[in-house]
Amino acid sequence: MKAGRAATHIKYFQNTSDYYLALGSGRIDAYLGPNPVAAHHAASTGRTEVIGSFSGAGDGLQGKIAATTKKDNGLVTAVHEALKHLIDEGSYGQALRR
């Protein structure tokens, strides 16, 4: 924990409907997963928003991953900047190579 901030709690869901229900009800603030699923949900329901995507397969392949939040919940900028920072400084690439 940095600067007195609360720890992040990661939750895992088996089914797509489970994490979208959790997003909609406020039990989770964001979802990180496959871009096609997130993009389809955002386009078809209007209740979520894709706030960024990046290749999960490294520089050689274009494997899309997206982060999704409940629409207008204020996390868009923070999540985008966090993901961008991990990619820019190389931590994300290191994790992929493990």
Oligomeric organization of the protein chains: single chain
String of helices and strands? HEHEEHH
Helix content: 40-55%
- Spatial separation of the terminal alpha carbons: 24 Å
Number of strands: 3
**Strand order, sheet with most strands:** 1-3-2
Radius of gyration over C-alpha positions, nearest whole angstrom = 14 Å
Number of domains: 1
Structure described in brief:
The protein has 98 residues and is α+β, with helices and mostly antiparallel strands. Helix content is 43%, strand content 20%. The protein has helices spanning 16-25, 35-45, 76-89, 91-97, and strands at residues 30-34, 48-55, 64-70.
Walkthrough of the structure:
- The protein has about 100 residues and is an alpha+beta fold.
- The chain has one domain (about 15-95).
- It is built from four helices and three strands, in the order H-E-H-E-E-H-H.
- It has helices at about 15-25, 35-45, 75-90, 90-95, and strands spanning about 30-35, 50-55, 65-70.
- Strands 1-3-2 form a three-stranded antiparallel β-sheet, with helices on both faces.
- A hairpin with an 8-residue loop joins strand 2 and strand 3 (about 65-70).
- The two termini are about 25 Å apart.
- The model has no long low-confidence stretch (mean pLDDT about 80).
